[in-house]
Amino acid sequence: MTGGGFSGAAAIAGIGATEFSKDSGRSEWQLACECVLAALDDAGVDAAEVDGFSLFTMENNPEIAVARALGIPRLSFFSRIPHGGGGACAPVQQAALAVATGVADVVVVYRAFNERSGHRFGAGPPPFAYTPSTDQEYRNWINPYGLLTPAQQEAFLAMLYMHKYGATSEDFGRISVLSRKHAANNPKAWFYGRPITLEDHQNSRWIAEPLRLLDCCQESDGGQALVIVSTERARDLPNPPAVIRAAAQGVGPQQISMSSYYRDDIDRLPEVNLVADQLWRQAGLGPAEIDAAVLYDAFTPMVLLQLEEYGFCGLGEAKDFVADGNLEVDGRLPVNTHGGQLGEGYIHGVNGIAEGVRLIRGTSTNQPAKPIENVLVTGGSPVPHSALVLGADG
Amino acid sequence: MSEAPRSVVRTAVPRLVVTQDNEFWFRAAREGRLEIQRCADCHTLRHPPAPACPECRSFDWDTVESSRRCTLHSYTVIHHPRDDAFDYPLVVGLVDLEEGTRLVADVSGVDREELEFGMELEVCFAEHAHGEILPRLRRREKREEER
Ligand SMILES: [Zn+2]
């Protein structure tokens, strides 16, 4: 182990997914069961061995429903992390903690939904928004004025960031073009074989200025699961372990879901910075040792902001870092090689964790030629954040 | 922008979550006043309302009335998706109030070409979804005392 604690103790041994589509034609519950079985099959572990589930909120399929349907007889560990996509990587931290401490031996993480054919997050507030509670009270200060969707709520940050650093819509567009280029070479991606140009991006309609349609990820139906076991056990399983070198969560000062508008610098993400510091400390490395990254890309500006908060470049420099080709497959830091949520599918960040595993295994459809020792995978922002460093064994 | 009553339209805007922490603010808004919560001990202003002061952790608070003068900190122009409670393109602003706290509200009567960081605005009150009287932003009008 490096850096003490649970670093290196657990690994992702299996990944499995359904197809990513716009209309799955079956229940979310079935999608969950299918992806869990696919991940267990990939791991070479029997379903009856599963003794833990770790999920994050906005998951409609409780672990007991999946355990019942799949005849999983005993669960000794189950947890659920709040804050939707921001929490996407946190269930893997929970799983690693449970495995490292012997609370559970086989923990499964999944996200399964009909987010396109069922309720679309981009259409307006989700059903739970209408429950009057302190959890939803923050909506008082944004929803009545027209900020109803995540794109609309992120726009203030993106607009100020452009104003401060001279970034342009084209700088955001380069993230979209890159993702679609990667997706075009990934048969599993919704946008397989359908790359776009910067001109396509610039011609796409406004959603919430400065965000255009092609700055926003697609909405998808599908499921993705991960199987976490001890690194020691993973070594005896069919696939090379993706070792969990670091995993962290973060809430920053005066954090409000999607609307931390009252901080001095609204274009900064202190919760991301807090996660970064923990990751580097746990893993005993820094941004220079990260060989590739999967950065949460529900909306393109957050990729630029995350590049800066994680220290891959200085503040305001992400636009140049991107334009210089650093994020390409043969670049300094290949990013979102699966096509991201912009190109592959929006499975709330969990499909990105699977790509992190493939990069460590050497099986990405856009596998960089260079050796990949460490991969950063991040959850969403601007909400409470989470992220992982996955590493090769040995 | 049309000024049709908003109380009858179908809207996705959730009803206000009125609690013992924020009820004062909505009541003042209905009466056309913009109030800001103030710590009774260290006098730090805070918005949105909360039960305790993040500076000194006091639960004692009172309020001050805002001058409603503000400047534009950031903004967006919303085109999609559309909700019946608003007219589109919809300009929404985040402003710095003269007192030092920030506020979000929709902006009326300013074209997107005229939007500028730091431009002077003021808070007025108007009917919003579900018939609620809430802040709206508009160009600052020169008042008697400023001439
Ligand atoms: Zn105080």
TrEMBL record, chain A:
CDD domains: SCP-x_thiolase. Signal peptide: none annotated. GO terms for molecular function: acyltransferase activity, transferring groups other than amino-acyl groups. Residues 272-381 form the Thiolase C-terminal domain. This is Lipid-transfer protein. It comes from Streptosporangium carneum. The lineage of its organism: Bacteria, Bacillati, Actinomycetota, Actinomycetes, Streptosporangiales.
